[in-house]
Amino acid sequence: MTHTDQPRLFDGPARRRNLVRAEQYGTGAAFLIDEVASRLADRLADVARDFTTILDVGGRMHTSGSGFPANGTVTTVPFHDSQGNETACKRLTDNESLPVESGNSDLVVSNLSLHAINDLPGLLIQINRALKPDGLFMASLFGGETLHELRHALLAAESEITGGAHPRIAPMADVRDLGSLLQRAGFALPVADMDTITVTYDHPVKLMHDLRAMGEANCLTDRSHRFMRRDVLMRACALYSDRHGGANGRIPATFQIVYLTGWHPDESQPQPLKPGSGKVSLSSALKSAIGKEEKT
């Protein structure tokens, strides 16, 4: 079976339609994207390096207005045709091929854009190839606990009323799995860590509205193509509020953010010692330490 014959978890054209529709809501709906872009920019600012050739995969860093070094040249690879964006090159193709030259970027960054990729391991390999030696890759994406409250409420409501359930919220990768993917893709010094952003709403429907406005509506290939039944929606909202509602009547929505950092391998980077290359054995070191303790 070839790559193109394999089942695809995400519907690429539906994902692009969601992103195009989201532009109609204006920038106010992108508050979460902006917040994470700002946090990603803070991490970049801690790196003592001048980045001049920058690749933005997904085009979601520019929304914050301050995501890149002032002297850097930014090329954006959007996930849909971006009108009026003169810096944008050809978008990511349907087969998730990155349309850039190998070894041309000293920084590749991606903000909340990689969670709906069918072949994430393959795209990470492409990103690594796009980097110059000792080039940096830094990304944020949604982690496995994202929207767990909404996921469980929708599943329970639809199962209770119809006897079955369609997938409504896409599965997200675990931070440990994402760290392993960095290693598999050949990145040096890979790091994966996470934090949690909790947003509160007065009603679950407002949360769903914001998800559509951010371009994060359901794009699963196996999704239902019918509108959700009203009784299912109302039951899901009731379950959500009953299980998670606070004393003030507001409900929380969890967004787990995973941050990935990796470098294109280079001889100048710190290298781990080879097994057996140590000058002092572990047993000798322990005996020496025990001897010192006995003398004291």
Descriptive notes:
The termini are far apart. The chain has about 300 residues and is an alpha/beta fold. The longest helix has 15 residues, at about 30-45. It is globular. Strand 3, helix 3 and strand 4 (about 130-140) form a beta-alpha-beta unit. Strands 2-1-3-4-6-5 form a 6-stranded mixed sheet, sandwiched between helices. About 35% of the residues lie in helices and about 20% in strands. The chain is built from 8 helices and 6 strands, in the order ααβββαβααβααβα.
Q: What attributes characterize this protein structure?
A:
single chain; 296 residues; alpha/beta; Rossmann fold; six-stranded mixed beta sheet; 8 helices; 19% strand; SAM-dependent_MTases_sf; Methyltransferase family protein; methyltransferase
Write the layout of secondary structure elements.
Layout: H1 12-22, H2 31-45, E1 53-57, E2 73-77, E3 105-111, H3 120-130, E4 131-142, H4 148-162, H5 175-184, E5 188-201, H6 204-213, H7 230-244, E6 251-263, H8 282-295
Parallel strand pairs: 1-2, 1-3, 3-4
Antiparallel strand pairs: 4-6, 5-6
Helix pairs in contact: 4-7
